[in-house]
Amino acid sequence: MRPARRRTLRARLWRFRRSPLRRVSDVVEAWLLLTAWVVGVLGGAIAGVLAAVEADQGFEEERSGRREVVAVLLENARDTVPGHADVSRASATVQWTASDGRTHTGRTTVAAHTHAGTQVRVWTNARGDLVSQPPAESDAVMRSSFVGVGVAAVAAGVVWGCARTARALLNRRRMRQWALEWERVDIRRGGRTA
Question: What is the pLDDT of residues 158-172, one digit of tens each?
């Protein structure tokens, strides 16, 4: 290690060395910062990984609980567009048979040029109700990654905020002690120093 780096490292670790100028609050602050870094980095990473795994399991349950079924369009999709505006998608009524044999009717979005009687694919839940298409596996992995990164950032931010608050309280305490020490020095000298 080069001498310049060694001096920099020694300067940064002054709170851990013995010194007549070191106060108890300096030692507390040093341990507080060290703990905050460890908890912020490791705790944030662990929280992020756990959140990502939990989100991925939720997306997997969502994908496994939905089924794609064939439905029949009951009306022309173009007829449902108000004023026959030029759109590519329209909401239309469809009918499908659930896995339990019951017939269901609902509304879904289809291509605007689709005619009545056309078979379209829709997604249903375990009860046979219409639901949106579940995210693809790659989308679910990306979403769970975003959740994990977000949770890690929030966890690290909370730790950082708590450490900053504790440092501010320690600084306030040190300023009060310093003011008291100046008063003692001033009284010993018999007058005001300012």
Answer: 999 999 999 999 999
Q: How many residues are present in the chain? A: 194
Burial code (b: 16+ CB inside 10 Å, e: under 16) for 23-62 equals eebbeebbebeeebeebbeebbeebbeebbeebbeebeee
Sorting pLDDT into bands at 50, 70 and 90, what band is 190?
low
**Measuring CA to CA, which residue among 85, 138, 92 is closest to residue 115?**
92
Burial (CB count <10 Å: 0-12, 13-18, 19+), residue 94: buried
DSSP 85-126: ---SEEEEEEEEE-TTS-EEEEEEEEETTPPTT-EEEEEE-T
Written as one letter, the residue type at 92 is A
d(CA 19, CA 27): 11
The pTM of the full predicted model, rounded to 2 decimals, is 0.62
- Tokens linked to 19: 């010194």
